[in-house]
Records
---
Amino acid sequence: MAKNLLSINDLTKQEILDLINFSNNFIDEEGNFRKEDLFSDKTVANVFFEPSTRTKMSFAVAARNLGCGILDFNVDSSSVQKGESIFETIDALNLMGVDLCVLRHPESVIQELAEALPKMVFINAGEGSISHPTQALLDMKTIIDHKNSLDGLKIVIAGDLDHSRVTSSFVEGISNFPIESLTFSGHPEMCTKYQNPKIGKYEPDMVQALQDADVVMTLRIQHERFEEELNLDLETYKNSYQLSSEKLENAKGDAIIMHPGPVNYVEITEAVYDSENSVIRQQIANGVAIRMAVLSRFLSG
Ligand code: CP
């Protein structure tokens, strides 16, 4: 296994499946996370240059459950505010003996950091619109929990795809498996990168895209990543692209509904979020198990 987890492409298909299987060991029969004092000699730093609830807190919970020391690096009260670079910042943590850095950053800096600081392990917790590998692992685990396998599934991803690191990492991960189909759907101006995809197809009509789907992943509009203000009528957008109970009737009856969070209820109705088909809250819990597996594997070298 690679020293760092910078991209889902750092993992082979077998390593993806092994990590998902391994993560199951950290959940007991009642669904609680096991607490094992396995890494009391290791220190993990959560370094988030962008907001996060799920990823940051689940890495913190996962590290605590494994007995690691966990540092919550606060960018706003750090010397970054005095002009210190990301490289000097992470090198300072490295010199203090931090073993593993969980990094979220709007720019592609993690590869260069990993090369410059070979003693430190790096886990990518979100790289701009480029990648979010642990999200892809927890998404694949959630699908396997419900469908037993990733093989033979009809998967739909709908929403603001152009800005979605969740989509890019999920597509990299799922391309290892013989799925039946992968359909991208959403407003054409938010799906410019997916109109002629390497795998799968683009279907702008969401009702058509949903036909007989097994898995539907919905994504919020990432307003913070648009360079220009969106000129969008929300009611018109919802009519075409919001996953409602009516649109969902086109998918299979046992289709699972996913969303990486946070949910804005523009891309999905509250009724669908709360429906029996929704596994969105399970994705959040699976984030802890996957991150316990990832920390264990990568701290073990
Ligand atoms: N899914 C996800 O990355 O959520 P956060 O931004 O809350 O970490």
Note: Residues 280-299 form the longest helix (20 residues).
---
Amino acid sequence: MHDPDPSALDARFGVPGRVSFHDVNGIAVVEITHAAASARIAMQGAQLMTWAPTGMEPVIWLSPRARLAPGVAIRGGVPVCWPWFGPHASEPSLPSHGFARTAPWELLQVEPAPQSTELLFRLSPGDVPGAPWPQAAELQLRLAIGAGLEMELVTRNRGDRPLTIGQALHTYFGVGDVRRVRIEGLDGCPYIDKVAGGRRGIQRGAVTIDGEVDRIYLDATADCVIDDPVLARRIRIAKRGSRSTVVWNPWADKAAKMGDVGENGYLHMVCVESGNVADDVVTVAPGSVHRLWVGYSVEG
Ligand code: TA6
């Protein structure tokens, strides 16, 4: 079912006390409540906006100035970047990070399982008229929301030619003070430094942030951990089907220019994005699928 009014979604998929649907500025938002966690998902872009295990500060951060309006990218949560990452390779007029994140996804299933609530969304060529679809492709996103969070982005090539895509789950994590966090798991990985005009380097030790950071780590397949001494927690980021990890914080000046990060918002978020970008873009053979999976959990 596509994004009709929330009451129709509620009638079809609502689960009293677990899953409900609401209108927020013309965007249908799914509200998930569970003993172990709460979450909100915008139907637009099938974009998880917030996830907070019970008793914790939100692990997935949503800007206090996020704009919810049809066709407007939502600042925070987990934007789905597909079928390209960053600016389009040849058409600067096309939206940054592709068109999936502002498209009207279809909700296929809701499963209120005991330990988590599972949802399945789909995006098909007919859903985004005029978008430069990479031939006959279909996208699905499965989420499992509980004390942990799992997401799987599945690209299906329904065409007769190989399909090359760039993609990422562009996840905004909530932190106590970004100047105090350490991001482990990227030691020794080559990276492209977008702040330094694309200069390439090799990561030495943990990633720390004391200014604008915008790096694409390549051949990065290990778990990452965000060590947050202020909130006294470690967020583990496991992944499969992803060779790139992007680390981004806009810092003060760029955040101020963006206008939807909020007062000092940049101090309370860091993006650690799992995907396949730049040298790591993937080619999906005709008739086959590519699966990008992430698992987020909180330790300590
Ligand atoms: O993932 C980092 C990045 O590519 C940055 O360069 C910055 O553009 C960020 O994504 C946010 O992009 P957006 O289009 O959501 O403003």
Note: Residues 73, 86, 96-97, 170, 194, 214, 246, 248, 271, 273 surround 6-O-phosphono-beta-D-tagatofuranose (CB under 6 Å).
